[in-house]
Amino acid sequence: MGHPTSPADLIIFTRALFRGAAQAPAPGAVALKDDRIMWVGAPDEVPAELQGPDTAEEDWGSALVMPGFHDAHLHFFHSALYLSPLAERFVGDNEADAVARLAPLAARRPEGSWLLAQGWRDYLWNPPAMPTKASLDAAYPDRPVAMYSGDAHTLWLNSCALERLGITEDSTPPAGGSYDKDAEGHLTGIVREAAAMELMPRIVAEFSTDELLDAYRAFEAYLNEHGVTAVCDVSLMAMPGLDFVRDDLFAELEQRGELTVRVSMFPTLLADRSRLGELQSAHTGPLLQARGFKQFFDGVSSQHTAWVHDPYTNARFAGDCGRPTVEASVMEELVAPAAAEGHAVRVHAIGDEAIHQCLDIFERHPVAPAPAAEGSAEGRHTIEHLENFQPDDIARLARVGVIASVQPRHITLDPGGPERDLGAERVPYMWPFRTLLDEGATLAFGTDSPVTDIDPVSAVYTAVTRRDADTREPEGGWLPEERITLAEALSAYTAGSAAAAQRAGEVGEIAPGQYADLVVLAPNPFDLPAEDLQQAQVQATYVAGKKVYEA
């Protein structure tokens, strides 16, 4: 932005300024004007012309001042919903306990309304067993219940819900989904993948716009409280009209001056690409924009729906390799014209074969240069999740220039699961953060909320220690050779996420001209042992130069 010519609105001083790009923190000062950073430098070198009579100053002492955390992958609608009074969120100890935890929701919601919850994980229960509608029917025979799994790929319904949704034993599920049946051919209440996802709009239809806006406001506040200043709201499902990227709710908050998070929207990539253009035309402000597309190549490893090259170690049938959600040729037909038009594409690819095929497609179809906003970087494709690699693809990811959008807390979601499903030979190539960075890849960190909580400090802890942020297991870390440094983790959560959002140069670093999105942490995490990183607490959060949270 050149040499400043007018006083700053605010000058922030600190003895620990982390500018980004994995640099070590050092004493510094940051001058903010309107919604931008106008100057950065040493505390004793602040230009006199910046310090006008109306310039406020804040000295954060030894606290760390850094770019705001940027969640590169979450689902805003469901995250807001499950943290609101409209629904519940829990894992449960077992099937009976999960049913019992619905009681507070049932008490506060209107009689006859849906009971909606998310978070159960049967493999973490004691005993680990898939639930059925029978337990829900016993507790709620006359009220519809919908329980989404923690990974959001499986739905557990009671008989009343099945009836309200019109699902019978003769119903045909959509492609890529299933209605589970028992040995006698009766519905169990378990609905999987695409079949589960397409039901969500009908289940949440009873919630009013005002109720949803309240949920969005509360989730914004929760994000700000945890130092999150920007998010990528990515499509939840590939089916037309079901991406749950609710630009209408964001726009209402923006119009009211209540949008306190910078939002980059990524709707589903379809043959009809008009939705992105409509979003980009409608939302041109700095806080709310649409930046690219999202697609899906496979499912999840725990359900054997992630697409792997060799059969699962605990194969359920001969040739059990999962499956692509669409054939590779169809994916290429979707990606090629979008990339040629200059649009970046983000693809959910968890299994090693999905990753391999996705890299093939992205290598053949890089993002074409397109007119971009001032300061924007060249567009880059992104792969989401990337749980296990074919060894040669780790280096290829960096060579092709594809961003790795990963969620550190996924590493410890299913203790023993990788060994169970993929076996010892493939485990060393799972979430290889250290190797990816050493090969020159760009990491972008996020949470996949509501799959894991949005707290970035906990995610950073897991990336640095390879241990679960709640249980601190396993001792010594899971694949500890893949640990990364604190500076690298923070860079992935700021500059890396900005790259995935197609907003490099706008956010992600503390540099003149970038948006004034900052967070203050104390104690300074760089002064803490790795095991104590979670002691660092958010003291203040700034979005567009305005303080939106203070402890």
Query: How large a portion of the residues is in β-strands, by DSSP E?
Result: 15-25%
Return Rg in Å: 23 Å
Give the CA-CA distance, first to last residue.
32 Å
Structural class, please?
A: alpha/beta
SSE diagram, text form:
Layout: E1 10-17, E2 26-33, E3 36-41, E4 56-59, E5 64-67, E6 69-74, H1 76-82, E7 88-89, H2 95-100, H3 103-108, E8 115-120, H4 133-139, E9 145-149, E10 154-157, H5 159-165, E11 177-181, E12 187-192, H6 193-197, H7 200-204, H8 209-225, E13 228-234, H9 247-255, E14 262-266, H10 274-282, E15 288-290, E16 293-296, H11 328-340, E17 345-349, H12 352-364, E18 382-385, H13 391-400, E19 403-406, H14 417-422, H15 433-438, E20 443-445, H16 456-465, H17 486-500, E21 518-522, E22 537-543, E23 546-550
Parallel strand pairs: 1-4, 1-5, 6-13, 7-8, 8-9, 13-14, 14-15, 16-17, 17-18, 18-19, 19-20
Antiparallel strand pairs: 1-2, 2-3, 5-21, 9-10, 10-12, 11-12, 21-22, 22-23
Helix pairs in contact: 1-8, 8-9, 11-12, 12-13, 16-17
